[in-house]
Every structure is written in structure tokens, then in C-alpha cells.
Amino acid sequence: MQRISSQMNNTNTQKNLRMQESRLNKVNNQIGSQQKIQQLRDDPLAAGHLVRYESYLGRVNNFEKNALALSDQFTLREGYMTDSLEIMQRIRELAVTGANGIYNEDDLHNMASEVDELLKQLIQNANAVSADGNALFAGTNTKSTAFDVEMGNVEGSGVPLIQNVRYNGNIDSNLIEVDEHKYLVNDNAGNKTFWAEHQQIFSMRDASEWHATQDSVILIDGVEVEVTRGDNIYALVSKINNSDAAVKASIDPVRNSLNLATTDARQLWLQDKTGTTLFDLGVIKDSTQQPPYNYNDSVRVAGGSMFDAVIAFRNALLRGDQESIGGRVLGTIDMGIDSLNARIAKSGSEYERAQINAQRSSKLALDVTNMVAREGDVDFTAAATDMKLLDYTNQATLSNAGKMYHSTLLNYMR
Length: 414
Hints:
By secondary structure, the protein is an alpha+beta fold. It is about 50% helix and about 15% strand. The protein contains 9 helices and 11 strands. The strands form 4 sheets. The protein has a 4-stranded antiparallel β-sheet with strand order 8-9-5-11. Strands 7-6-10 form a 3-stranded antiparallel β-sheet. The protein has a two-stranded antiparallel ribbon with strand order 1-2. The protein is elongated, with a radius of gyration of 38 Å.
């Protein structure tokens, strides 16, 4: 029931004018902001979809950026690895030349000078940094120099030369998210990239009577191996061989000691995470010593890096030892080349995968953008039509109101 009074027409007219102005203002705001939803109550369902779509679009854009940034790192590292491969190929040519037996000691000394310069360039490549100053081959220890150089006196040389090259990074890798809960591994440990031989560790301590006195965990190349109280050496070897570590364990048939060997060219990374299992077996020093150079003093280590191979070649040239050059030295250089070729192929494969993910994210971003536009963007044709209709209605209402209340003060001044 509606009460009839003299103010009813005026009240209804004012109410309708305010409502028309509100609708017109809403359409103007939609056109100005290009957003269909001004408030959540305009369309709660579409607003919920829009929030999820915009959040997903932001993540997809980040996935694309991650994949592209990772591609750039792969490209940069591959460039330095390719250059290092050319250096190793030149070193091999010199090794073949130096091993043929027709050159005298002076000629071999001259070759040693070139090999020493190639060694310096190889180390320079291994210590390369990216545009943001991060070491390319130091694992996640990117703010340090990947390889430290030790100088010393070498037989046949009157000046100090590079005597040893030690890895200063770590073997940790970064996981780069390129899709929802999908990651690419950024593994740039230099003690894998610049390693020539399978490394082998031979403990000298008899382990036939060894039993684990407590539950513990050992780390082998970053992979955890759980040791249970009461385990003997045979159980430990079985657990290591069944783990995900690229390492094979065995028991020395003479000394009954633990032997470890990598399944590809890399440096072994051994550590007691909890307990003292590896220390008790005489493999590593106490837990205060950090890998990779924490081997027990009695341990025999075989298998070195490309730098070790080149240093051995240079020293053999300085000594005039052509037999060594044509034997172990040349063989180690060949293994280093093969290993570096494998690393370059792996890096190229990872680059292609990163590019595929970047392209997929780019296409997906367009699809999600269309979804966002469907739910949130204003239809300009419909909005413009509504605005003209509302403006026309408002003008008509004002015109009718003016006719209804045409009396003015002048009507009372006659």
C-alpha cells in the first residue's frame, strides 16, 4: 500500500533520477576503467573466476620468465664449455704430437709453454661469471670462485707454475619452477663439468668386524643413505648400491675395506650427515672437515679432473717423458674430452626443454588473458549503447519533471 500525498510525485521523481544517475555513473566507470566488475556484488561468480584467472596469469608469466632466464644460463654455460672443448682438442693434438718420439727436449719445453697457457684459459673458463656476477660452475655457491689455483715449483721450470686446481663450489642444484609444481634442475657443479675420470676411493681400514653402533645417515653425492644400528659392511654396501647415488660400492677382497667408485666422470662428495659411519670406516676425516677434500689421510684416491690431466701433460713435457704422454696422459685427455662432450649434449638438451616450456607458457598466457577478458573486460559496444539509453532516459525524466513542476516564483508576483 502506498500513501497518496502532495509530495509523492516529487519524491518518486527524485528517487528515479538518483537511480538513473547511479546506473549512468556505473556505466561511465566501466568504460573509463575498462572493467565490467566494479564491485564484487555486481557479479560474485564472475568475480571469483576473475580472481583465480588473474592469479594464474601472474604465475604463468613468472613460469615463462623462469624458463627464459634458465635458457640464458644454459646458453652462457654452453658457450664456455664449447670453448673449453676446443682447448682440450688443441691439447690432445699437442699430446699426439709430443708422443711420436721425433721431438727433442727443447721442442717439448716449447710445447709445455703453450700447454700451460691453454691450462690458464681452461681455468679462466671454469671460473667464468654471468652478467650478474654469479659463478657459472660453482653449484649454488655462486658468490665464490669456482676453482682455486695453487702455484708451486715444477721440475723443468724456472718459475712457479700451476700445480693444483681445487674445486671451491658445491654440488647443490636449484629447482626452477616452469609449470604448476613442475621444475627444471639447474645443475652447474664444476666438479662434474670439468672432471675427466671416474673417481675411485680406496679405504685402507679393515671393515670385516665393523657394525653400526647407532642409526645414522651418510651423504654420497648429496644422496642420503640411512644406516641402521647393527648394519655390517655388507649391508652398507647393498644400501649404497641400491640408492639413487651415481656411485658403486664394493669390498676390497684383500683388505676387506670399503671401496667407492663413481659411475661417470665426477668428483665424489662424501659426508657424515649424522653419526660417524664413514669416519669409522676410515673413508673421511671427522665431521669438522667439509667435502670434497675431507678424505682420510690413509685413503687412496684415483681419477682426476681435466686440469689434473693437463697439468700432468705439461709436467711430462717439461721432463721429456714421451712414454707417459703417449700412455696415461693421452688416455686421460681423451676421457676428459668425452666427458665434456657429454656435458655439452646434456646442457643443449636442457636448453631445448627450457625453450619448450617458455613457448608453452607464452601460448598459455594468451589463453588465460582471453579468459580474464571474458570475465572482467567491459563490452564497449553494449556499454556505449547502455550509456546513450540511460542518458536519453535521464533527459526524458528531467523534461517530464520540468513540465510537472513548471510553476516558478514569478507566478506569485502578478
